[in-house]
């Protein structure tokens, strides 16, 4: 379930969080041509409840999840936890 890739033009990382209850999901936006050695334009992190539906969402719906997080307004210092109760079967 560890992810370190580009999704829809965003740098995305995800992995099981140290608490054993959530999945860390981080989305970073870089400008076209910007060096990765520089800080991203913005950086957003959410935590997804680590259950079967949450793992399915991260594995099979990463593009939709990334777009959702990219458009999400997260106040500074706020921890966002998404709980997926059920997800479509693929």
Structure description:
By secondary structure, the chain is of the alpha+beta class. The protein has one domain (3-82). It has two helices and five strands. Strands 1-2-3-4-5 form a five-stranded mixed β-sheet, with helices on one face. A hairpin with a 5-residue loop joins strand 2 (10-16) and strand 3 (22-29). The longest helix is centred in the C-terminal third of the chain and has 10 residues, at 62-71. The radius of gyration is 13 Å and the shape is globular. The mean pLDDT is 95.
| Beta-strand segment tally | 5
Distance between the termini: 17 Å
Helix proportion range? 10-25%
What general outline do the C-alpha atoms trace? Answer: globular
Strands side by side in the biggest sheet: 1-2-3-4-5
Structural class given helices, strands, pairing? alpha+beta
Q: What percentage of the residues does DSSP assign to strands (E)?
A: 25-35%
Which parts are unreliable, with pLDDT below 50 for 5 consecutive residues or more?
Answer: none
What can be said about the biggest beta sheet?
A: 5 strands, mixed
Count of all domains: 1
Would you tell me the overall average pLDDT? 95
Output the radius of gyration: 13 Å
Assembly annotation: single chain
User: Treating each run of at least 4 consecutive H or I residues as one helix, how many helices?
Assistant: 2
Order of helices and strands: EEEEHHE
Short précis:
The protein has about 90 residues and is of the alpha+beta class.
